[in-house]
Amino acid sequence: MIIMPLGGGQEVGRSCILLQYQNRNILLDCGCHPGRDGDDSLPFFDALSNPGEIDLILITHFHIDHCAALPYFTERTDFKGKIYMTHPTKAVMKLLLSDNIRLQSKQGLYNEQVTRHVALLVAVAVTVADARRGCAVVGSAKLH
Q1: 71, 81, 77: which is closest to 109 by C-alpha?
Q2: DSSP codes joined into one string, 51-69
Q3: Structural domain harbouring 122
Q4: Residue 27 lies in a domain
Q5: 31, 51, 121, 135: which could join 77 in a potential S-S bond, CB 3.0 to 4.6 Å?
């Protein structure tokens, strides 16, 4: 198993950790640093050789430092994997991300197209409870 912090390793903010195990690539969280602006607030995504190889993102909770870079990652990279979170996280995250994108747009991090995609992004995110029920939308991620 390889564990590589892309942010949040020795600070509070921009929590994002890459886990690699048996040819699977998982991002734990995808957050922004609340004390920084624009690209400087993002995790170090340039350390990823190919964001399209990320199989899934697991958002642990809805704080800015754990989920606010999600729209950037899904809209500005070739990520095609699944996104998992709990129902409470999904409920709060839509409001939180909409507000964060409005603020970050002033620094040029997001544009109107990304702002329109937030509702869709959160709508297609799969909750952990949905995954446990095995709903048809979700493909399972075999880790062993």
Answers
A1: 71
A2: GGG--EEE-----HHHHTT
A3: 2-133
A4: yes
A5: 51
Question: Model-level pTM?
Answer: 0.75
Q: What's 11's domain CATH number?
A: 3.60.15.10
pLDDT tens string 44-97: 999 999 999 999 999 998 888 998 888 889 888 999 898 888 888 887 887 777
Beta bridge partners of 18: 4, 27
Helix axes 87-105, 112-124, angle to 10 degrees: 180
Q: Shortest CA distance to 6 belongs to which of 35, 31, 23?
A: 31
The answer to whether position 41 is within a domain reads yes
Number of domains, the chain: 1
Q: 81: closest CA among 19, 32, 133, 132? A: 19
142 in a structural domain: no
